[in-house]
Predict the structure.
Amino acid sequence: SQKIEQNSEALNIQEGKTATLTCNYTNYSPAYLQWYRQDPGRGPVFLLLIRENEKEKRKERLKVTFDTTLKQSLFHITASQPADSATYLCALVGGGGNKLTFGTGTQLKVEL
Amino acid sequence: EPEVTQTPSHQVTQMGQEVILRCVPISNHLYFYWYRQILGQKVEFLVSFYNNEISEKSEIFDDQFSVERPDGSNFTLKIRSTKLEDSAMYFCASTGTLVNEQFFGPGTRLTVL
């Protein structure tokens, strides 16, 4: 069956450092992959999308890589800030209606 | 900036009762979705909807669930006879094209007693 795994442990980092979050998947061949941010009690908010033929995508302080051979995506936040503290969700896209299949998420806490 | 809205924000119901969760997707979007998130768990796909019919549904979306787009703006999720395990946050989402990001609403917290 399809499986999407993200760092199960919360990630605590110091302000100004780079946070790196991992998303691994099995039994899946997604055409593309998306990353979302979720704050407590709120809906997911889209951050970045990367296609299977793209190795890397950047947006401001965010960078995503996608390795279809390793079946892995890495999500980086550079120069992290306390406001970046949230849960980050990896989502694979597929199916007739292009449903999102989410990982469990990684909780990031950026400390002063 | 356009956004997806959902009502109510919190619904409390007795087991066996019917509930209708309402969503107003972004106005020019064509694809609509419902997801749910049980407390402390991951966001799970329920159903996708396009051109007035279901595109895909998950195993969770059984005969007790139905969706409807009764007019040009609303998108509803009905649970006919709620169970305790239906307690969750329900998110509506919409998108303009299949290759783009999905825009999520703020969610309806459903509590079944």
